[in-house]
């Protein structure tokens, strides 16, 4: 079965750029989405179709996907961005999530 | 306001069944694919099942294939998950989520608050 691999944790200073990677075999040939989940809350879609932002998502969130790696980039990271982030894709009409990355804003 | 509300969770013994429901308000679901996603306590997200707008395309995670059945009733604006032969590792918070498209290959842009399923003797 298809697998997506994320780093368990990423740390960033306020105002700096955070990058969270998601690796999978030929992931660049598929669409990747990214979800933000804060403690006790439901997930929120922040990036879909590799690079698109849903309405209401700040411009500091961006995405890319090429080769075997999709990347979520948060520019000018704010304290409110501290959360778990999950990448997700589709493989043969089956959904697959990465294991999640805890973003800490120090 | 678009809202998804799950129901039907509870505490059941291993081997028994449960049926989860997801009711939508503020939106007509019949244009969109729908999904069930679960999250075990302290763990990450796991996609469970998805169904296209017209039920023509249905998929399941390997972990639930043959035990769970997804369905929808567009007339009732609702989504369902029939869960049979439940196991302890099915214990999780189950979310209902709406896809951006009618055929599930984009992203899930609206999520419910979840319903808790606990499997224990």
- Structural class of the helix and strand makeup of chain B? mainly beta
Low-confidence stretches of chain A: none
Number of strands of chain B: 11
Characterize the main sheet of chain B. Answer: 7 strands, mixed
Number of helices of chain A: 0
Helix content of chain A: under 10%
Number of strands of chain A: 9
Instruction: Work out the strand percent of chain B.
Output: over 45%
The topology string of helices and strands of chain A comes to: EEEEEEEEE
Q: Main interface pair?
A: A-B, 25 and 25 residues
Shape designation of chain B: globular
Mean pLDDT of chain A: 97
Radius of gyration of chain A: 13 Å
What is the chains' assembly state?
heterodimer
Low-confidence sequence ranges of chain B = none
Query: Roughly what fraction of the amino acids of chain A lie in strands?
Result: over 45%
**How far do the termini of chain A sit from each other?**
36 Å
Distance separating the two termini of chain B: 39 Å
What is the helix content of chain B?
A: under 10%
**How would you sum up the major sheet of chain A?**
6 strands, mixed
Key words describing this protein structure:
A: 106 residues, six-stranded mixed sheet, B: 121 residues, mainly beta, seven-stranded mixed sheet
How does this model look, in words?
The complex is a heterodimer of chains A (106) and B (121). Chain A is mainly beta and 106 residues long. Chain A is built from no helices and nine strands. Chain A has strands at 9-12, 18-23, 33-37, 44-47, 61-66, 69-74, 83-91, 94-97, 101-105. The N and C termini of chain A lie far apart (36 Å). With 121 residues, chain B is mostly beta strands. In chain B, strands 2, 4, 5, 6, 9, 10 and 11 form a seven-stranded mixed beta sheet that branches. Chain B is globular and about 40 Å long. The A-B interface holds A 1, 31, 33, 35, 37, 42-45, 47-49, 54, 84, 86, 88, 90, 93-100 and B 35, 37, 44-47, 50, 57, 59-62, 95, 97, 100, 104-109, 111-114.
């Amino acid at each position: 079965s298809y697998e997506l691999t994320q780093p368990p944790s990423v740390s960033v200073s306020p105002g700096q750029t955070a990058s969270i990677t998601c690796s999978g075999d030929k992931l660049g040939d598929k669409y990747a989405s990214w979800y933000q989940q804060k403690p006790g809350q439901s997930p929120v879609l922040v990036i879909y179709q590799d690079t698109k932002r849903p309405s209401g998502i700040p411009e500091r969130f961006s995405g890319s996907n090429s080769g075997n790696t999709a990347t979520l980039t948060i520019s000018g990271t704010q304290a409110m961005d501290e959360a778990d982030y999950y990448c997700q894709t589709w493989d043969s009409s089956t959904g697959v999530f990465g294991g999640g990355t805890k973003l800490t804003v120090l | 306001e678009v809202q998804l509300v799950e129901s039907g969770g509870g505490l059941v013994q291993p081997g028994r069944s449960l049926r989860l429901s997801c009711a939508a308000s503020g939106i007509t679901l019949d244009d969109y694919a729908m999904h069930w996603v679960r999250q075990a306590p302290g763990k990450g997200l796991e996609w469970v099942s998805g169904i296209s707008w017209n039920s023509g395309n249905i998929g399941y995670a390997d972990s639930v294939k043959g035990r769970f059945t997804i369905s929808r009733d567009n007339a009732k604006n609702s989504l369902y998950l029939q869960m049979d032969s439940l196991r302890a590792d099915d214990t999780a918070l189950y979310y209902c989520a709406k896809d951006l498209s009618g055929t599930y290959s984009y992203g899930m842009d609206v999520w419910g608050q979840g319903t808790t399923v606990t499997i224990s003797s």
